[in-house]
Every structure is written in C-alpha cells, then in structure tokens.
Amino acid sequence: MSSRTRTLTSWGVANLIVVLYALFPVWWIVALSFKDPSTLGDGDFIPREWTWENYRGIFQTSEFTRALVNSIGISAIATTIAVVLGTMAAYAVARLRFPGKRPLIGVSLLIAMFPPISLVSPLFNIERLLGLFDTWTGLIIPYTTFSLPLAIYTLSAFFREIAWDLEKAARVDGATPWQAFRLVIAPLAAPGVFTTGILVFIFCWNDFLFAISLTSTTSARTVPAAIAFFTGSSQFQQPTGSIAAAAVVITIPIVIFVLLFQRRIVAGLTAGAVKG
Amino acid sequence: MTPATSLGDPAGKKTAKLFEGARQERRLGLLLCAPAAIVMLAVTAYPIAYAIHLSLQRYDLRFPQQAHWVGLSNYVAVLSSPFWWQALWVTVLITLVSVAIELVLGMALALVMHRAVFGRGTVRTAVLIPYGIVTVVAAYSWQYAWTPGVGYLAALLPQGSAPLTDQWQAIGLIILAEVWKTTPFMALLLLAGLALVPEETVRAAMVDGATFWQRLRLVVLPLMKPAILVALLFRTLDAFRVFDDIYVLTGGSNGTGSVSILGYDNLFTALNLGIGSAISVLTFLCVAVIAFVFIKVFGAAAPGGEPERR
Amino acid sequence: MPGIRGSRSRRLTAAAGLFVLASGLAGCGSSGPGGPATLNWYNFPDDSGALQQAADRCSRQSGGRYTIKYDKLPRGADGQRQQLVRRMAAHDAGVDILGLDVTWPTEFAEAGWIREWTGTMKKQATSDTLEAAVRTATWQGHLFAAPYNSNTQLLWYRDDLVTNAPGTWTEMLGQADALAKQGKPHHVEIQGAQYEGLTVWFNTLVTSAGGSILTPDAQAPSLGPPAVLAARVMHDTATSVAADPSLPNQMEDQNRLAMESGTAAFELNYPFVYPSMRANQPELFKHLRWAPYPSVVPGRPATVTIGGIDLAVGAYGRHPDLAFEATLCLRDRENQLTNALKGGLPPSLRSLYQAAELTESYPFAADVLAALDNASVRPQTPAYQNVSIAITHTLSPPADIRPESTVADLRGQIEDALGSKGLIP
Hints:
The complex is a heterotrimer. Helix content of chain A is about 75%, strand content about 0%. Chain A has 11 helices and no strands. Chain A has helices at about 1-35, 55-60, 65-95, 100-115, 115-130, 135-160, 165-170, 175-205, 210-215, 225, 240-270. The two termini of chain A are about 30 Å apart. Chain B is an all-alpha fold. In chain B, α1 packs antiparallel against α11, α3 crosses α6 and α7 (about 200-205) crosses α8. The radius of gyration of chain B is 26 Å and the shape is flat. In chain C, the strands form 3 sheets. A 5-stranded mixed β-sheet of chain C has the order 2-1-3-11-6. A 4-stranded mixed β-sheet of chain C has the order 8-9-7-10, sandwiched between helices. Chain C has a two-stranded antiparallel ribbon with strand order 4-5. Chain C is built from 18 helices and 11 strands. In chain C, β1 (about 35-45), α2 and β2 (about 65-70) form a beta-alpha-beta unit. By secondary structure, chain C is an alpha/beta fold. At the A-B interface, α1, α3, α4, α5 and α6 of A face α1, α3, α4, α5 and α6 of B.
C-alpha cells in the first residue's frame, strides 16, 4: 500500500516539476504582456501594475486579426493536405511493394535537409511568375512540401508497427474492407496520424522565413511575420509589450488544438496495444 | 490479362493470381505515393537545382552583369575560411549537446506523460506549449530574461555579468533555449513510440521481478528503438540548422554564429549568391552525412527497407 | 478502399477549389485603364498615422492622377532591406517608391534598382535640404533619392548627477569615474552590440578625429591615426567603470531602458529617448538634459553620423513621372512637419527647425540642427554592407580592442570587403 502511494506521489511530483519547467518561461511572456511600458524594464517576474493596454493595442487595427485568420486558415489547410498525402504515401511505403520506394524516401529526406534560406529566393521568383506571391496558396504549397518528409517518415514508422493480421482477422470475421479499416486499422493508426497532425500544424504555425519572404501585404501575411511589423513608439523601440501580447494570443489556438488532439492520442493508446 | 495457364492447373492459377496481385500492389503503391512525390518534386526541384547552380558561379546580386562561372572556387573559398570552421564547430557543439539533453529529457517527459496521475490532458498540453510558441517570440523572452537589469533570470546571477556577451555562456543559453523549445517534439515522438510497447510484455517483466530501471533498459527501450531513431534523426537534422534562437539572442556575434547564420549573412546581407549558396550546399552535405550515419550505422529505419509483416 | 477515397477526394477537391479561388484573388496590381494610377510606397512601419496621412494628402493633391498606397516593411532595417532587395532584384514593377535607409542608395543605385533625379526634380529635391542628407543620396555625382527624414545623436545626461556637460570623451569618462567613486549611478550608455550601431559609433569617432574610414573615391580604406584614436576611445570606454556590463549586447533601445532605470548618468542616443522618458519616468525626466556629442579632439567639434530615410523611385515601376512627383509631395514641408510632430522623425528641411510648432515639442531642435549641419556620412560604396560587417566584426567586443593591431586588422578586412572577396563573418 505505502509503496503504491509512494509511487503515486513520486509521479505526482514529477508531473508538477514538468508542468513548472514548461510553463515558467511562458509565464514570463504573459507577465511581459501585462506590463505597462514604464515598468517593462524592471525585471519583475510578477507585474507590479497590470494593464490591458498591450492587448488593446494589437487589436486596434485589423492587421493582427487578419494575420490570425491567415495563420489559422493556411496552417489548417496545409496540415490537412500534408497529412492526407503523407498518410497515403506512408501506407504505401509501409505495406506495399513497389519500385521507387528507396528514391522516394531519399528525395523526401533530401528536401528535409536542404537549408531553406537558399530556396526562398528561387521560390519567390517562381511564385511571382505564377501570380502566387502574397496569396494563401503561395504559402500553403511550400508548407505542405516541407512538412511532407516528416509526415511520411513518422507515419510510415507507425504503420510498420501495426499488425495487419488484425485487419485480415476482422475480414475473416465478416467485416467489409471499409469496416475493417474503420474499426480496426484506423484506431491503431490514429496516434500516428494525430501526432503528425500536431507536428505539421505547429511547423506551419511557427514558420517565419517563408511567411516574411513570400508575402507583402496583410492578404496572406501570417502571425510570425506580422510580429516583425509591430512598432514601438519609435523606430528604435522594441514593441516588447505588443509582441508578448501577440504571443499569448497566438498560443491560445495551439493550446486548444493540442488539447483536442492529445485526447485522440490517449484514445489510441488505450485501444491500440496489440492484444494478440 | 492473366498469363495463360495449363488447363485446370490449380498451382498455375495460384501463381497467376499472385502475379496479378503483385502488379496491382505495385500500381496501388505508386498511385498512393504519386501525389506526395509530385508535390515535393515540383516545388523543390527547381530551387534546389538553382541553388546548386548558383554555388558554382561568382554572383554578387548588386553587380548582376558580372556573374560568371567559377566552378568549385566558391567551395574552396568557404572551406579555407576560418569563419566557416568556427561556425561549423559551434554548430556541432550546439547540436550534440542539445540533442543529447533533449533525448534524456524527452524520454523522461514521455514517461511522465504516459503515466500522468492527475489531469493527463493538462500535463500533456502544458508540455507541448513550449513547442507551440513562435520561436522568435520565445527567443525574445529569453533575451529579455537574461539582460542585466531588465530580466528576472539575470537578476539571479552575480552583479555585473552579462551572459549573452560571453561566447561560452551565450552558447550555453542558446542550448538552453533550444532544449526548452524542442524537447516536446522529442517527447511527443517518444510518447507515441512508448504507446506501441505492449503492456503485456512490460507486465510480464514486472511479474518476473524486474525493477523499474531494468524494465526500462531491457524491455521498453529496445522496443522503442525505431521511434527513438526517427526522433533522433529529425531532431539532429533540425538542430544542425539552428538559426532563430541564435539570431535573436546574440545575432551570431561574439563567435556564436552557426552555419545557417553564416549562410544567411552571406546570402542576404552581403548579397553574395555564389558564396551563400556554396555554404548552403556544404551545410546540406554535412546534414546528409549525419542522416547517412543514422541510417546505415544506427539502423534508423528507412521505411520500406525491411520486409513487411503480413 | 472506396470509402476512404471518397472522403479524401472530397477533401482534395475542396483544396483544389481553394487553390483556384486564392489564385484568382492574387495579383491585383496597378489599377485598370481609366482610373488613377496606384503608386506603391514601401516604407518602414509607422503606427502614429503620420505616413498614412501624408499618403492620403498627396493622393488628394494629385487631382485624381494617382493614389499612393502605403505598404509597410518590417520594423528592422535588415528586414526592410531584404524585402526591397529581393523584389528589385526580381525587377518587380509593383514597387514605385522606396523608403531607403541612408546607407542604401549607393548600393541600390549601383545595381540599377532606383532612378536618377535630374533637372527641376533634382532642384526641388535638394532645395532647403540638409547638406549631409543630400550627400547620403548622392552617388558618383548623381542624385538618386530625395532625403525624407533625418536623425542624429546627442549627449543626454542627468543634471542631478552632472553639473557641467563634458566636452570630450576623456572628460566624460573622468566624470563617470568620479561618480563611481561616490557610489552614484555612473554608466555611459552607448551602443556596443555587434551591429550597425557599432559602425555608427566608430564612424562618428573617426570623422570627429579628423579622418575617415574610406578614401574619398571609396576604393580603399583610409583609417590611419584618427582610426587608432577612435579605437582607443572605444576601448577605454568599454574597459572603464563607466561601461554598462551589457555594453557588448546593447542597442539603442537597451540604452534607453538602462537610462530610464536610473543606473546611468550619460547616454549617447537619438532624440526618441526624450518623449519616452517623459512618458515612463516623469521623476527622472525632470533632470534630463542634453548637450552636443562629446568631441574626440579637444576644440574640434564632433561630427556625428547622420541617419534617416531617403525616398527613391523604383526603376521598374510603370509610372516614373508620377512617382517622382508623388515623392516630392510626400517629403514636402507640410508632411515633414506632421512626421516630426506625430511620428517623432527629425525633418531634412532646414527651415523647419525654426518652425514654432517644432521647437515647442522639441526644445533640443537647435542642437539637433547644429549636429546635422556638421554631420558625417558613413562610407559610400556599393559594398557598404560588407564594409560595415567587417568593422563590427573586428571591433567586437569593444573591450578587446587593441588600437594599433585592431586597426591594422581592420584595414585588411575592409580591403577584402571592398572587393567583395571571400566570406563575411
């Protein structure tokens, strides 16, 4: 009994430490966002004076709201496409035999490895020619492309671990292929798919280089790039308060997204282990 | 369609079916891979080829008429420059240390998330938040925290020290920022790998009297090997190209620049497309070597390399 | 598996539809035939409303011939330059008017990205304009931009700590030393990070010592004894008690914060610190005073580096004549006054410095004008970025400077930079 409580307490303490370690610096950003400009430089961890001024400031014009809409839309679409294409390819790679498998993996690794700074200018030129510069599509396409390698790799690693006999057993038991997929394979694949979804979404959400290089107005500019346009009271002053406020605001969708999808991983975990 | 078989030969019919099945499988495989392959190639083929092409020219963007072919002399210039080697060893140092820390921490986090006692969702979400914050913003908050007089962390240090201005201390802080930011990435991949370890095997080991550490070392970790290697591979590839944190924290000054910062400076600031592209290609080659080592030496699963289980 | 294909293909169709829609929305450039031409003005971001007001005012005054669309560039100068370079290198017709930092016109002109100003336009762009500002927009005798706003540094100090403003750097460091011995705030705030601000500091010191970084034809480094003297001043400042511990990591904003936090007695910075302290630290503000930048050689006034923005006309825009006209309007007296009052940007027109409205908000206007009339310009060469990086790299951190050998090292680095040879650090 006591050893069990000991185990529980030690896990509980570990949980607490983990949460603190993760959130300590986050609190600093939150604190900065509530600080008055005059107290910004005082180094206090908890603001002496609280103000909503920074939040009011970033929503004063429609620029930041537009950037939020752009970010959410572009990231969601790019994630969906990348996960769909990645799942298809990963399934093929993990399950089927066909020529060109090695080259495909090689090429996708190559893309994941090439420094993006060299690719930005040629991409800019192409997009200008095609009229995609400063559009949603102009960002969705690169985001999808550069997250596909990770998606394919992660998903195929997952798919390889799934025991496909289960599907066959289900079919033998009389299920249709669709039922077999939906009731047996999909739950097993779910952790991989949702893990990949989270990672790809965060990649698109956080990207700065492509966002700043392939947009020029608010029609497609995403939040990380928009932050580079925030101004302080003069050209020399860093708008720390506004940046912190913007950071808090844009982290909220991530928190929601993660909260929603991590439950799917849990569901996958409890349902998933091969029960022989 | 099906190849001719001798009349009523059941073995022949079976071979025919197998053959046909294999062809269908190939077709399905190619069909499923095609969209992803097309997207990747269409978008990156020209830029990568163009970058390599540029690296073989002397091309300063401000004097576009003077661009001319110089073969490998850009590469010679880069490899004989002390700036490159300095940036390289800083990059290697940051990569090795941060990935090592992240692996251990990530494993610990994965275990905690796996066995969260209270508020499972909360713990998991809290752990992932650092990864979800925009990198440059997180870097700014660290920079502020470490600036003497302004930040809460700097206040903990002895008076008069400015850690961001000293090479070693700054590198340490960069590693700290990197680790804090991307350990969740490792933890997430490791957690997913952990999920695939069968409970029965672990419980069987427990019944056999194995302690927690023994179970971890002898049962869980070996079964997680593929997931660990995927996580390590991608994390190392990314760590080698570290940019955002260094750019914001020190701007690469005082000898803290990585190869990516070097490439960025030469490409965007000096507008020397030839040298900048050469640096990018060399960075890519280094990264390719790392990937090669992982796949061939450590046996990171190159998916599709092993016979599928049926 | 038909079921999956169905849902997947539905998603793909939706994505494809979005693709088409988005492409259709792309590429809205200049207006169609018959309507007023749209001139795209790319400039640093300004939230005070001054620039938008100028654009609107000039659009109205055009009598329907053109409308000026104010597009923002990123806040940081490097980001602005990247965006402009990328687009001009691609011969983008969508950039009509460019807001260039004063160190860029040379580079852009040499690359053929901006148009030359000639004839009456040139006369109008340079009349009543500060001479140093005009110099920043001139390359090889030709004018390539119209000065927009200006900027320069003053010495700010606290009169509760300092009774007489120091005239030279040696005096200032001495006063700081005395304050330190009394246990009072004593730091001298100056930009010492490895960035453009360090080049500004070095340029100010070298020219104040009577020398220059490059020869007049900008083909080779000049340096010499004035540079050694400048390097010595930087070294002495960084190693004295007057140095803020964060000096090697400080930019203008960090200097401002340190001054406002009360740990500093002196500050060498731009005028933006004045309204900031008034708003943030009213108590300290009562003691804030200003003086001319301390000189390096006694009796020889300092020649502070000039900053600011020049407006240039893009080489690939479709309406160059309208763009020239619009630029002249954007920088006219009324708009520069609005910029100064609303946006805090010192004007480039001399006569404005006597305007009553300006001197009311900026009691230090006369000192700023005096500094600008005697200002120095940073080295004018298309390879300026390389030269600047060579300077900042060699002079960082300031505490490690050994005057003679560092300057000798710098000479070699600048020679390489001018030939755009090899890598930059």
